[in-house]
Amino acid sequence: MAQQEEWFSTWFDSPYYHILYSNRDDHDARLFMDNLLAYLHPKPQHKILDLACGKGRHSLYLNQLGYDVTGIDLSEKSIAYARQYGNERLHFDVHDMREVYKPEAFDFVLNLFTSFGYFESETENVVSLKAAATNLKHGGKLVIDFMNTDRTIERLVSHEQKEIQGILFDISRKVEHDFIVKTIRFEDKGRDYCFEERVRALRQENFMEYFRIAQLRLGEVFGDYKLQPFDPEKSERIIFVLKK
């Protein structure tokens, strides 16, 4: 869609992205899925779309619990990795979330772990939400799991270094033009690298406006992976459950 290369299309496809985040704890992801499933009560025949699934850790876990799951992501390398785990009830596809994948094909669409707000223009956030809604069957539910932006900014670590697998990552963070920007610099095999992550500093009121435009009805707002109520000052996450 955009003329210039978007940051997520290069960084998420880089092997260094997976090295930097290789120590991510799956415990939180599974706890969240367990609590979410208890709340949503999907039936065995229901179809779940994992939107911006990365290497498929949520999809894989949901499928292990017996659900029919499709994971889609823009990163060809992540999808190539995820496909090794595919089966008749677990599928992966390279796809841009701004475009409709399969109209009215899914009972649930999940967008997890702050996989939203990457686009330079706000319009594209609405476009991706409308596409997500179109993928849903009538009466289906969309779950969006995002950071609690104000709390994240308040606790932003402006600079840190991490050594992982022999690579020293130099990480700096700042708020710039309504984006939280993380700059990642490192050297490997005699070559210097610099990548950037840019996530729009979206707050509840921004999402509410998006939902209104996309004609999605808000059901519930949770503040953490235990599905406790959202508290703007204390909650780590903001998790929306929406209905088509």
Separation, N- and C-terminal Cα atoms: 26 Å
CATH topology (level 3) name of the largest domain: Rossmann fold
Order of helices and strands: HHHEHEHEEHEHEEEEHEE
The structural domain count equals: 2
Indicate the percent of residues in helices: 25-40%
What is the tally of beta strands? 11
Class derived from helix and strand content: alpha/beta
What is the CATH superfamily of the largest domain?
Answer: Vaccinia Virus protein VP39
Level-2 CATH architecture of the largest domain: 3-Layer(aba) Sandwich
Summarize, please:
The protein is α/β, with parallel strands linked by helices and 244 residues long. It folds into 2 domains: 7-149 and 203-243, Rossmann fold, CATH 3.40.50; 152-197.
Please describe what this structure looks like:
With 244 residues, this protein is an alpha/beta fold. The chain has 2 domains: 7-149 and 203-243, Vaccinia Virus protein VP39 (Rossmann fold, 3-Layer(aba) Sandwich), CATH 3.40.50; 152-197. It contains 8 helices and 11 strands. The chain has helices at 7-11, 15-20, 26-40, 57-64, 76-82, 122-135, 149-154, 204-214, and strands spanning 47-51, 68-73, 90-94, 106-111, 136-147, 159-164, 167-176, 179-188, 191-200, 217-222, 237-243. Strands 3-2-1-4-5-11-10 form a 7-stranded mixed sheet, sandwiched between helices. Strands 6-7-8-9 form a 4-stranded antiparallel sheet. Helix 3 packs across helix 4 (57-64) and helix 6 (122-135) crosses helix 8 (204-214). The two termini are 26 Å apart. The relative contact order is 0.15.
